[in-house]
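Q: Convert this sequence to structure tokens.
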Amino acid sequence: MNLLTTTTAIDNTITHPGSVRINVKGAFIVDEESQIPKDPVSASPHNETRDIRLPNHTAVVSHIAVDIGGSLVKLVYFSREPDSAEIGGRLNFINYETDKIDVCLAFMQQLKLEQLQLTGSKPGELCVMATGGGAYKYYDKIREALGVEVLREDEMECLIIGLDFFITEIPSEVFTYSETEPIHFAEPHADVYPYLLVNIGSGVSMIKVSGPRRYERIGGTSLGGGTLWGLLSLLTGARTFSEMLSMSENGDNTAVDMLVGDIYGTDYGKIGLKSTTIASSFGKVFKMTREAERQAEDEGGLANEDRSNTAAETVQRDGFPREDGAKIKPEDISRSLLFAISNNIGQIAYLQSEKHQLANIYFGGSFIRGHRQTMNTLSYAIKFWSQNQKKAFFLRHEGYLGAVGAFLKRQPRNWGRRNSFEGDIPLVERWRSRDDGESLDGGGP
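A:
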């Protein structure tokens, strides 16, 4: 049975924030633009992720969570509804590039000052839950800048807690993707284990999850989002990840990739390869580059200063000639490299899922960002190699698994409507207990 929040309860949660119980009953993803001011300081973070409305939560929340990776800082915080008599509030999501950590800290400082208005707690009672490698690298910096308690949480555990929360608690969060059916949402459900989490950040970690907080890192690859970001910075002159993804939307990878059709002239049906399948990423470039150099030599030779140009300068200025006589554009390179990285991750994920007999594969991390080409490539790879025996799942908040997990670590056990994180009791058994009218915590939202 739920009780309205009393003054005593509020005072207690301010003093002991770990006792806050987030009421997720009726939670949903907000489709309209948030009215919460995301960034009162002069910064340029990414606010594209939708808030999660918690219409029945009334208790005070006096902590925020941050996941600091090699490329991005992901921040999650709770706020009440502005200028509204309605109860409840929402989880807000925001990210910064890690090299702009000072701007992120300025925003967190502003959150601290506005705590009373946003959450009902006082500025001095703010606590920061931190995870990711940066929770250690920037620990002293955060404490010094904010003057608050900073609790560091294990990165892998936070990822799993965050993913379990989204799978079991939030409607219209998890979905499958394909060209024929772009988005098909999966309903929140209880029987989720075992599964494979493929978390794609700067690098890639692959984690086998056997039950609540029972997990094992079984593999990964160093070729991840940081690889794409770094190489495209060199080759195209793009400076932000969003710009790189946008460029790939307008590119033609066949200008630089060698396809099965380029080799066979048609499909290779005997082994199931279409003529449009990539046989070699960037396989055409070396040949075209050599031809361009020979042509330049025939026309009088390359000047010394031309030979010293970087690949990025050359492509940006002139572009390499394509086979059809046009020029290879930065957009072509962006699309090709995106496919190369995504295909590699997809195949490794399939091999790990096959080795460990895992049918469901969840892709998370800030590399994806809801980008349709990335999701289609990963989904197709899993579908092709498993012969439709395995499923690839994606999330609308895929980049915030660790931050949400750290946020939830400040909660007591058995706080969710599906009792998502009650010790080592299998989730399906706890679900049956609820159906039988049995309560594991004597109540709950």
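The two ends are 7 Å apart (CA to CA).
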